[in-house]
Amino acid sequence: MKIKGNLWGKFTVTVIISILIFGIKINAETQEDIFSQILKSTNSKIIEVGLNTTYQTNCSGKKQCIEWLKKMNLYKFNSNKNDEDKVSNKLIKDDGTGYCLEFKQDNVEGYIESYKELKSYKVSISIVVKTKNGKLNLNQKKVVDSINNEHICYKYVKAKSKIDNINVLNKQVRQVLIKNSAENLECIKVNKSFSTTAFIKNLDYILDNNKKVSLNCAACKYSDGNYIIIGNPIISIAY
Question: Is the separation of the CB atoms in 156 and 235 below 8 Å?
């Protein structure tokens, strides 16, 4: 399907938001349900979603990066004329051994980079989408299907909670996980925040000390209030 004019910019943002929530090779209904349950139970409003993924390729790393940017219409030199002023690129590195380009379009920002290894290239993608109204389009779109190489997507949702008591907030998270038959449930306290990991079936998972982990929830106490961060399979950002 081809989209012309400024509709493409809106489509791109919608698609990126969609892949941040759902990713690849997962049960969309299960993930939407567990994310929605936690957000509802903690009375939280989404402010940000993000995705990180890394994969190996035998092709030119720089070429892979530029092709992906073009497909996502995040490459300023190839964007539609109507969107050109909305796309911002900043070249960080291009020295033959590595390539890195930062991008920004409306409320979408991030970077893609590659560096040469012994016999291949490693490509990393990081995207952050910020929202002020707490609403995101959750239609499943598999734009990252363009990555043919084996990879794992690390996705997260960050939301501000109206629950003032951090202990109550963490308890609400735990109750939702137990309700969803979570396995390998573990919780640790770091300063004034809590981090909980669990295995929820039908979600992408990793092995941590030979235990399956597919969901990571953090109840964070910051100076401006309490926040919930939900990651699949784990939270890939500092908190």
Answer: yes
* Spatial contact of 231 and 156, defined as CB atoms under 8 Å apart: yes
Task: Please tell me the distance from the alpha carbon of residue 118 to that of residue 99, in angstroms, as a whole number.
Answer: 16
**Order of all β-strands in the sheet with 215-222:** 87-94, 98-105, 108-116, 121-130, 44-57, 152-161, 225-232, 215-222, 193-199, 183-190
Q: What is the largest CA-CA distance in the chain?
A: 52
Q: Give the C-alpha distances (Å, rounded to integers) separating 166 from 38, 48, 225, 230, 235.
A: 15, 20, 9, 15, 19
Integer CA distances (angstroms), 54 to 40, 51, 87, 108, 124, in order: 31, 10, 23, 19, 4
Distance CA 168, CA 207 (A): 29
Contact 213, 221 (CB under 8 A): no
* Highest-pLDDT range among 85-99, 104-118, 173-187: 173-187
Q: Is the pTM of this model over 0.90?
A: no
As a whole number of angstroms, the distance between CA 152 and CA 53 comes to 6
Q: Burial code of 182-205, b = ≥16 C-beta within 10 A, e = fewer? A: bebeeeeeeeebbbbbbbbeebbb
